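Title: Prediction job returns without error message
Component: structure pipeline
Severity: low
Priority: P3
Assignee: unassigned

Description:
Job completed but the reporter wants confirmation the result is attached to the right record. Sequence as submitted:
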Amino acid sequence: MASSDDCLPTISWPFAADWLSRRRFLKGLLASGVGACGLSAAAPAGAGAAPNPGTDTVLVVLNLGGGNDGLNMLVPTGDGAYYDRRGGLAITPSAALDVGGGWGLHPSLPKLWRRWRDAGVAAVVGVGDTAGALSHFQAGTSWACGSADGRPALTGWLGRWLDDQPLRSPFEALTLSPQVGLELRGQHRSATSLGVDAAHAFLVDDQDRGTQHFSSAVGALGTAPTGLGELADAWGAQATAYVAQLPVVRGLVGRPLAAGLAGPLTLAARIINARLGTRVISYGYLNAAFDTHVDQAPRQSALLGAVDDAIAAFYAALDPVHASRVAILTVSEFGRRVTTNNGEGTDHGTASTLLLVSPSVNPGVQGEAPPLRNLDSDGNLKVTTDFRNVYATIIDRWLGGDGSGVVGRSYADLRLFA
């Protein structure tokens, strides 16, 4: 494969009206592996069935980076060991938002609590990586890869799911972050990075003359056979489809968005409303923000309050007709230790709680809660649900695909969806 330097003469300024041919332009893009549509140069050719944007299920992944403390997000108010070990950092039963069964939500989650009472939230407890990695890099890479068979961390779980899907829409998998993370990179395909505003969205800012010419060139790729084979024709068709939808996308990212996490989740709802054939949307919230080694009580309260507001903003922006086909999944690379440290915070731990928000979930607390009086040799919770089991269930039962093939092992269905 050619280096990016080899392709610079193909894709750089100045833009003249006849600055390059379709054939030269496409050769340069395929040689460098560059693409707007999430299709790599090794992708299988051929378009699949047309998407059903009004009926296909959608997964919105929200990464609470840094290691969210699941014990204080979903509080085991009925477990005396929690209060014995957490001390002053524990959420009292009177402060927790009671959800029944000896559990309560953090007091900064009142909107989510009301959604819980309406049977729209599942909380999966005891979820973690059985390998027990406690560094952000190692654990984050493991969660993004989502592999149970020891394969190198070169592709991610959603990227491998995308590899198995027919080419249907250039917006099938999106990240609202500036870069496509490992979890969204497959061997043959990857997500499209859209960003949260016109300044970061690929080809959306149409005020620049160079962007106008580039957009026109990309849009022309699929209007005729490329002469470079089936793969290039498939890539060109996706590129043309992307550009054809740009007026819609400009309207989505060009309208004002709220500050903080509510902005990206509002944009996610707008994308779903636009029926672009999107199946997966991912956003990573404030890298390592949930790494609460010190002053956890006020920090996590503010962070979870932002999550609460953002999920509420998502559903306020989402057309109710789509609600039953959309699920929000929260992930974090690990949980926190049970005991409090000297900085009034908690250190890196193991098992935590994941949230799955949708009218279509089996609501309530799911999974086996790790025993707080029977910790591992390092004083951490014992993982009771492998996080890859959650992934496999979501792929099998929500996104549609081969969960065991994607994660590399067969798992029992967790029955997360009604």
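Comment from assignee: result matches the submitted record. The chain has 14 helices and twelve strands.
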